[in-house]
Input
Amino acid sequence: MTQTAAGPADRPYGRFFLPGPTEVHPEVLAAQIRPMMSHRGANSQAFMRGIQVGLQSVFCTARPVFISTSSATGLMEAAVRNAGRTKILSLTNGAFSERFAAIGRACNLEVDTYEVAWGEAHDPSVLRTHLENGTYDAITMAHSETSTGVLNDIRGLAAVAHDVPDTLVLVDSVTGFGAAEVRPDEWGIDFLLTGSQKAFALPPGLSFGVASERMMKRAQDAPNRGYYFDLVFFQKNHDKDQSPTTPALSVLYALEVQLDRMLAEGMEARWARHDEMAVRTWAWVDEMRSSGVPLHVVAPEGYRSPAVTTVRLPEGVNGPDVTQAVFDRDWLVGGGYGQFKETTIRVGHMGDHTMDELNGLLAILTEVLS
Ligand SMILES: *Cc1c(COP(=O)(O)O)cnc(C)c1O
Output
């Protein structure tokens, strides 16, 4: 059997537990073989309108859901370019929230940080102090920090930011959306973004953004919003049921099918399924510790992502060896990220995975680690 980086070509469905890209259901994968269509004209407008209805429903929003042909990092840049004028505050607690700060600097903004250690979450009352001591066009944060498995209280953090005039709330919900409850309109999130290849369980290639009215007003005058990620350009095309530039049509076909599947499950049921898988994973960590294998969940209780669990390995056990041993058994689990590369593994229990599939992975991990 030829082993490729993706595992054997005939690997059964349900064994791919990376925290991105995630396993794509065969029905969704198959949608991509449809022939191309023109992305201008009545046909494509009807297609885009249909998708938009589904998107607004899964994003719990009455605002337009912009679709970008880029990975999620593209819309992180869009967030910063359209909301930033001179200075932003980045809440950092891991690799992806740090990326948001780096994008701010790369876009020539002054960036202050409210930094906590990898594995910790941000505290709304500390955020309040930061906002009292500086004036910011926007704050950035990660909802579910995929490097550590920490879930931030974006609702509480957004509420604090709303006590300050003109500070927009920009949220990377790349592994949050689809796994954890998120209600951008109700929670006052000015820009919420996600990618296609995480808890959305689509192939990579698209990202999605929901902009508040305040965000769109800000974008109108943003001095440095550029061209490709200009939200005003997105809005103009959205109003005509068009995409700004040629969309990744094949992934849109997959999206159309996946939206139907998500709506059939229901978002609340989807969040509950993710909670159940996460709770099972944390319980497994405790069981392993009781039986003498000292594993630990990196994220503190109360701040754990329902999409991804970062597991600290026992002293002397090397992360890459564990992921390789799992791979050799024709399953996949995520390696540690950045400064956690050697000392952790990450279980991506998100997307369309089921409890049965997760239990299968945990059995393999038990065998590898015992
Ligand atoms: C994966 C990920 C990103 C980057 O997404 P790309 O689609 O690779 O650009 C950003 N933030 C978080 C939290 C992620 O998990």
Residues 95 and 338 are 7 Å apart (CA to CA). The longest helix spans residues 267-290.
